[in-house]
Design a protein that fits this description.
The chain is of the alpha+beta class. It is built from two helices and four strands. It has a four-stranded antiparallel beta sheet, with no helix packed on it. It is elongated. The mean pLDDT is 75.
């Protein structure tokens, strides 16, 4: 077996560069400053204002497998409320 093959089997990767891996990692961690912040997504469009009404809120979920639509916000079909359409689903909250 060649010297390179034996060297790779021992796992002494840091010896090739003159130091060991643990000391290199410690040096990198010690020298790094605070991590950069993650990019934030721009705020989405504001939701439509729903008029306040006195009553008991109701939730309606409807599945129409043969009628698909793109995702969107709608007004409620049954009074004051908000509806969300997503594919074959329509989720409606009324007051």
């Amino acid at each position: 077996m060649s010297e390179e093959a034996r060297h790779g089997m021992r796992g002494d990767v840091g010896d090739e560069r003159g130091g060991d891996l643990r000391s290199e990692l410690a040096a990198e961690l010690g020298s790094s400053s605070a991590p950069s912040p993650l990019p934030s997504a721009p705020p989405g469009a504001p939701l439509p204002d729903v008029p306040t009404a006195i009553g008991t809120p109701a939730l309606s979920v409807r599945l129409t497998p043969l009628r698909w639509s793109l995702p969107r916000l709608d007004s409620s079909e049954q009074g004051a409320g908000l509806a969300v359409r997503l594919g074959p689903w329509r989720i409606e909250i009324t007051v």
